[in-house]
Amino acid sequence: MAGNWNWTTFEAWAQSVKTALTSLGGNKYALGGMLSEYAEHMVPLNGGSLINKNTGRVAFAQNPALETYAYLNSLYTKGLFEPTPQYDAGSPDWMSGNVAMYPGQLWFVTADNRWGQLPFELGFVPFPKSPTYTGDYASPVSGVAVYHIASGMTAAKEELVFRVWNELQLWKTDDGYRLEFEDTLITKFDDEAYVEAYLEIYDKIYLDIINALGISAYSENGWRRNINLAIREGTARTVMDQIKPIYEAALEAYLGN
To answer: What CATH number belongs to 7-141+205-255?
Structure first.
């Protein structure tokens, strides 16, 4: 990235795409997918978070988050988003090639139950930063990788398996992992530019514990369900203030306070 992939250039790109697609006729849209997916990944690129585990605060109602919701609302009201989005594999409009951009995960690209059978080429761009954000790129993850070793073995076999597995991890340097990962990306994207874009941000992650507090994301009080509606209706501040105490109580219990 040249440092100019921010909200301003993102909106200008989406507007130009909308104009081009409108001339083709039919139901075609610049942006697709659930608004919560955009919010979750763009809030940290405005200097915020959803649940800040370091400060022990519910942050999805703080200014960086509220500014992000307001920005997404402005894009929605300008008709840049498809009206009937879906999670994961995406809406029928996306699947049939009538939406230009959709949020997703890397494994979607070749998975048969996600995007592996799409009849068009897929590329990659990261989520944009806000124009005022000067920090490092950051992508939220909701869990950490845990490796499991098969059970049912004798103690001696378990120790041997663990030692072999541990040695395998130590054989590879960081450069070795990166080169291997780059080779994998080349099999998923048809253009080297997409590979380079992914390599710039793939390891810039942090843990956000919003999904670890015991509140279903899609329940009546869940952040994801509520923010999808609130962004569309422009009521994010009110709605976030309503569910904030519920998350504060859950966070306090989670942290053992």
So the answer is: 3.40.190.10
